[in-house]
Automatic annotation (TrEMBL):
Keywords: Oxidoreductase
UniProt xrefs under InterPro entries: ADH-like_C, ADH-like_N, GroES-like_sf, NAD(P)-bd_dom_sf, Zn_alcohol_dh
Species this protein is from: Plebeiibacterium marinum
Domain Alcohol dehydrogenase-like N-terminal: 24-130
Domain Alcohol dehydrogenase-like C-terminal per the UniProt entry, residue ranges: 172-294
Record flagged with keyword Oxidoreductase: yes
Presence of keyword Oxidoreductase: yes
Protein name: Zinc-binding alcohol dehydrogenase family protein
One Gene Ontology MF term: oxidoreductase activity
Length: 338
């Protein structure tokens, strides 16, 4: 079968691999689309500490069931369209024992710690499949990245009484924006790209701030003088991490999704004075996946505006190289195996 492999930093190519042979309880999927995640880009750039090379990337999956092994429930039938929860869990670590398997200490995400789905076929345990009747093949590939933002809002305990600021309006930040809006919160979107801020406005954001051309603190004093009660950091930038701690309201919650590329030093005085909650947010629960599927089923999400480009596997290297040079202009790039 055809597969995209990142052989080493800066080198991605299409190779031939053996089609997987499914075992008891597994399903063989025929891949339709796979989204490029920021983790795939950092793997390509050699900046992902969780990856060994060579690696098949990809965990944002749209597929159809091609074959089922023994032990798979009868409702998982050939031809059914599915997406995949791409995380593994050991069942024994503190996270798993606490019922938070998505944050398993020994998690292996497809395309990161183990080979992923940028290939024609992939085998997965049937328990990791989710069916989404009525969604298009493209929408199926958008579910997983949106769930990460949905989960961050869950971690932040957002309600209709909150003012939520989201740093970063890529796909992860968009997920946080959408779920905050769905919960009735007042939402402020911050980014350095006006086009992304325009789409955030269309998604229901009340206020947008371009932090490159506007003074963030001054704007926030006008919008929410006491500061936002929840801030979601989805940019992965040391500056936005610092801003989150500085701008959060007293007793507010800061939810961190983005991986900053370097260490961040904080004035710990603010931690104590504000009695703030600082929360990590990792991956997503099955319920987050179901919530995204339900939302996309409404048909209100601007799919065409969110998909920057759809390319064939042979262009994977070209796309990764171009994205690395101009990351701010990309929402979602999909690889098509149809």
């Amino acid at each position: 079968m055809k597969a995209v492999v990142i052989e080493k930093p800066g080198v991605a190519m299409v190779v031939n691999r053996e089609k997987p042979v499914i075992k008891q309880g597994e399903v063989l999927l025929k891949i339709k689309y796979v989204g490029f995640c920021g983790s795939d880009l950092t793997t390509y750039l050699g900046k992902n500490p969780m990856v060994n090379y060579p690696r098949i990337p990809g965990h944002e999956i749209s597929a159809v069931i091609h074959e089922c092994a023994d032990g798979v429930p009868e409702n998982y039938t050939v031809g059914k369209a599915v997406t995949v929860i791409p995380y593994s869990n050991c069942g024994q670590c503190p996270s798993c024992k606490a019922g938070r398997e998505y944050a398993c200490q020994f998690n292996q995400t497809l395309g990161v710690q183990r080979d992923g789905a940028m290939c024609e076929y992939v085998s997965v345990p049937w328990q990791k499949l989710l069916m989404a009747e009525g969604l298009s093949d493209v929408e199926l590939a958008l579910i997983e990245p949106l769930t990460v933002g949905f989960h961050a809002v869950e971690r932040g305990r957002v309600t209709d009484g909150d003012t939520v600021l989201v740093f970063g309006c890529g796909m992860i930040g968009v997920g946080a924006i959408v779920r905050s809006v769905l919960r009735g919160a007042k939402v402020i979107a911050v980014d350095i790209d006006d086009e992304k801020l325009k789409i955030a406005k269309e998604l229901g954001v009340q206020h947008t701030i371009n932090s490159l051309s506007e003074d963030l603190s001054l704007r926030l004093k006008d919008i929410e003088p006491g500061g936002p009660s929840v801030i979601v950091e989805a940019a992965g930038n040391p500056k936005t991490y610092l801003s989150a701690v500085q701008e959060i309201a007293f007793t507010g919650r800061v939810v961190c999704i983005g991986y900053a590329k370097e260490e961040v030093s904080f004035a710990t005085k603010l931690f104590v004075q504000k009695e703030m909650d600082i929360l990590g947010s990792r991956n997503a629960t099955a319920n987050d996946f179901r919530a995204v599927i339900s939302y996309l089923g409404r048909g209100v999400f601007p799919v065409d505006k969110m998909v920057t480009e759809i390319v064939e596997p042979e262009k994977a290297s070209q796309v990764l190289n171009g994205w690395s040079k101009n990351p701010g202009k990309v929402f979602k790039i999909l690889l098509e195996f149809n």
